[in-house]
Design brief:
CATH architecture of the largest domain: 2-Layer Sandwich
Largest sheet: 7 strands, antiparallel
Shape: globular
Structural class: alpha+beta
Helix content: 25-40%
Number of domains: 3
Mean pLDDT: 94
Strand content: 15-25%
Oligomer: single chain
Distance between the termini: 28 Å
Number of strands: 18
Strand order of the largest sheet: 15-12-14-13-17-18-16
């Protein structure tokens, strides 16, 4: 680990001179709050925290840190699980939460320009009012920022059909370590000149520069959604059914897997009104969306046939928006529920979807061999399984 560099008076003097209105936080609460994220009990305290309100502020902060060789770590809401927002070398944390404006929604060209502190869910709600959709929907969408989503190329349940953050970013304004500010590309669907700097910055976890503006691609919002809950008496059998859907030429917009224990914990944690039958050992949550009711119902019938062929005990349809919301709340709260129940270790694994049954069986076998329990859930359609060791 890099040794920590101490903040000195000359740096503070330079920073205050460049940005006299900038609030500099050095109190214990701010340092502690900005020294941790959602990863496993890791804490690295910065020496000060700043909340810029513009790209110009960010540029000056970066310039001062670079001039005085002060470590600089960018942070949004701190919902990440990979430690990207942790100031492991101390120094300055630049928190983007006050850069939270939706600058423009262009309904003609299906794109929007926003700042990095905009919350994912709030952005989705804003574009939905105009009949548009921004598909990436991480589990923490109610609190995670769009800047953090760009830094991690976040996905979510709908990535199965629509892709991840990387597929919906047209252009970025970024600030480099020396304070230089520039755009990585153009606000066009086709941009094939030279290196793709936009994609280079997406997923870089703040290591290459600081995102200060984001131009997002939007699509027309689907008008219909059908949600199916498919219980199985065997978790392995549930996993085996996943590949059959895609081999039949069907691509749901979401296909989520939950072991019974994951669902039980989530229901208790969220105080949700839902009953799990005794014979349910694992469940698939399958959503299809589109614009034509007849087509979607035919798709649901085809999925139902495949599910029964692979051992589904029954198939339940969410009959109302309220029921759909309840089922999605159960899925989205699983991570928080598991973490609140136990000191745990989470491994985010991904395999070809046909290998999901083998992965699940291996996890359980290893647990028996070494004496630990695990709770598994995840994006089954992507072959992405969250393994929580408890």
């Amino acid at each position: 680990m890099a040794s920590k560099v101490k903040i000195h008076d000359l740096f503070l003097q330079d920073l205050k001179s460049a940005l006299p209105g900038l609030k500099i936080h050095q109190d214990a609460d701010q340092l502690n709050q900005n020294g941790r994220d959602a990863s496993e009990d890791l804490v690295f305290l910065p020496e000060l925290v700043v909340y810029p309100e513009s790209a110009e502020d960010v540029s000056e902060i970066a310039r001062c840190c670079n001039l005085h060789s002060i470590p600089l770590t960018t942070r949004g809401a701190g919902t990440g699980l990979s430690g990207g927002a942790l100031p492991v070398a101390g120094g300055v944390v630049l928190n983007t939460m006050r850069m939270n404006r939706i600058l423009h929604i262009d309904t003609e060209n299906l794109q929007a320009t926003i700042e990095p502190g905009v919350i994912n869910y709030e952005f989705q709600e804003a574009v939905a009012l105009k009949g548009l959709m921004y598909p990436p929907d991480p589990a923490s969408w109610g609190s995670c920022t769009m800047g953090g989503n760009v830094a991690h190329s976040s996905g979510g349940p709908r990535a199965l059909k629509y892709g991840t953050t990387r597929d919906y970013i047209l252009n970025l304004e970024v600030v480099l370590a020396d304070g230089t500010r520039f755009w990585t590309g153009a606000n066009t669907l086709k941009y094939s000149t030279g290196y793709n700097l936009t994609h280079l910055f997406i997923g870089s976890e703040g290591t290459l520069g600081i995102v200060t503006k984001i131009v997002c691609k939007l699509i027309p919002h689907s008008t219909l959604k059908y949600l199916m809950l498919v219980p199985f008496a065997s978790a392995v059998q549930a996993c085996k059914s996943v590949g059959a859907v895609f081999r039949a030429g069907i691509t749901p917009c979401a296909m989520e897997f939950m072991e019974r224990s994951a669902m039980e914990w989530s229901i208790r944690y969220g105080n949700l009104n839902f009953t799990i039958e005794d014979h349910w050992k694992a469940l698939l949550l399958i959503e299809v969306d589109g614009f034509n009711a007849d087509v979607l119902m035919s798709t649901c019938e085809s999925i139902s046939t495949l599910m029964y062929e692979h051992g589904a005990s029954e198939i339940l349809f969410a009959d109302s928006a309220e029921q759909q919301q309840t089922l999605w709340n159960i899925r989205r709260k699983v991570g928080e529920a598991v973490k609140s129940n136990s000191v745990y270790k989470e491994e985010d694994t991904v395999v070809p979807r046909a290998a999901l049954p083998e992965l699940l069986e291996a996890v359980k076998e290893i647990g028996q061999r070494y004496g630990f329990e695990s709770v598994c859930y995840g994006h089954a359609g992507d072959g992405n399984l969250h393994v929580n060791i408890i």
